[in-house]
Specification:
mainly alpha, 91% helix, rod-shaped
Length: 68
């Protein structure tokens, strides 16, 4: 009987530790995404690429005219 209580205690402690680890992992994942969010909101990179995109459009238009 005492052995059964010991196994039950080990099982309950194991389940508790699994749920605690999952909760901690979820909190750390949310923290990581919040810390990464300002890096994805950088609008200067889009402005810096605008001339390259315009140049690509111009090359595509010239190529389209040449292949007709």
């Amino acid at each position: 009987m005492e052995t059964m209580f010991g196994f039950a205690a080990v099982g309950m402690v194991t389940l508790f530790s699994v749920f605690a680890a999952l909760a901690l992992q979820g909190l750390l994942m949310k923290l990581a995404f919040q810390l990464m969010q300002p890096a994805t909101a950088n609008r200067r990179a889009v402005v810096a690429r605008a001339p390259i995109e315009r140049g690509t459009q111009m090359v595509a238009q010239v190529y389209a005219r040449a292949t007709r």
